[in-house]
Amino acid sequence: MERRVAEQLRSALGPLGLEAHAFKVGWYNAVLQPAFHLPYPDDTLAFVVLSTPSMFDKALKPFVNKERLKIIRDPVDQCVSHHLSRVKEKFPDQRVDVMFDYEMLPSRKPKFLAQTAAHVAGAAYYYQRKDVKLDPWGKKKIFGVCIHPKYGGWFAIRGLLLFPDIQVPFLEQPAPVDCVSTEEKRIELLEQFNFHWQDGRYRDIVEVKERYSEEQKAYFATPPAERFRLLGLSQEVQ
């Protein structure tokens, strides 16, 4: 069942520059405190959805051109929401719950921890302070970051698709690729991400096969309120 769902997702999302990676809810809940648990049985099938560098041209720009007058909030969020809602329609006999990376609970906690989901699904390795043996940061707060073996840091985690009626007790957990494997490189990665994230160098910590285009870099480097202009949308639309 999992394989059939995965193939349907691949055929629906692949042409849009989106990837879906399967995991069991139990893998996710096992590494988090109860406050962050997903409220489903451990064997519930879920997929974490990533956007790859090609999503900008394959999904976002066509969506903006088609839905120009209906865009009232962040165009990327709205584009992903639109396409994941359409994916749900491909499973008329299944309940499909969707969670987006920007959604919050009433407690102001995120609905799910995106980087943890990507790690347990084997999609990208979540490098954290605990992955460095000789910690050089003292009392500084250090945030972790996911690195993809193919895209480095040139990708984003967009959402979850959960299938509450599909239980997959025998699904085997894939290990994420540990592509930043030396202590020195991990320190460099976390330093760049925490203290120099604006220059984007952390994204190229590994040799990447694909990265954002110059147009896409300019888009994400622009303050959100000004991005509408880059896509040819008027400020009134926002």
UniProtKB/TrEMBL annotation:
CDD domains: MMACHC-like
InterPro entries, alphabetized: MMACHC
Catalytic activity: apo-[alkylcobalamin reductase] + an R-cob(III)alamin + glutathione = cob(I)alamin-[alkylcobalamin reductase] + an S-substituted glutathione + H(+); 2 cob(II)alamin-[cyanocobalamin reductase] + 2 hydrogen cyanide + NADP(+) = 2 cyanocob(III)alamin + 2 apo-[cyanocobalamin reductase] + NADPH + H(+); apo-[alkylcobalamin reductase] + methylcob(III)alamin + glutathione = S-methyl glutathione + cob(I)alamin-[alkylcobalamin reductase] + H(+); apo-[alkylcobalamin reductase] + adenosylcob(III)alamin + glutathione = S-adenosylglutathione + cob(I)alamin-[alkylcobalamin reductase] + H(+)
Cytoplasm in keyword set: yes
GO annotation terms (biological process): cobalamin metabolic process
Listed EC numbers: 1.16.1.6, 2.5.1.151
One GO MF term attached to the UniProt entry: demethylase activity
Localization per record: Cytoplasm
Co-factor requirement: FAD; FMN
Keywords: Cobalamin, Cobalt, Cytoplasm, FAD, Flavoprotein, FMN, NADP, Oxidoreductase
Main location: cytoplasm
Superkingdom of the source species: Eukaryota
Annotated coiled-coil segments of the chain: none
Annotated Pfam families: MMACHC
GO cellular component entries: cytoplasm
PANTHER family per the UniProt record, alphabetical: CYANOCOBALAMIN REDUCTASE _ ALKYLCOBALAMIN DEALKYLASE, METHYLMALONIC ACIDURIA AND HOMOCYSTINURIA TYPE C PROTEIN
UniProt family annotation: Belongs to the MMACHC family.
Protein name: Cyanocobalamin reductase / alkylcobalamin dealkylase
Species name: Leptocoma aspasia
Species lineage: Eukaryota, Metazoa, Chordata, Craniata, Vertebrata
Gene designation: Mmachc
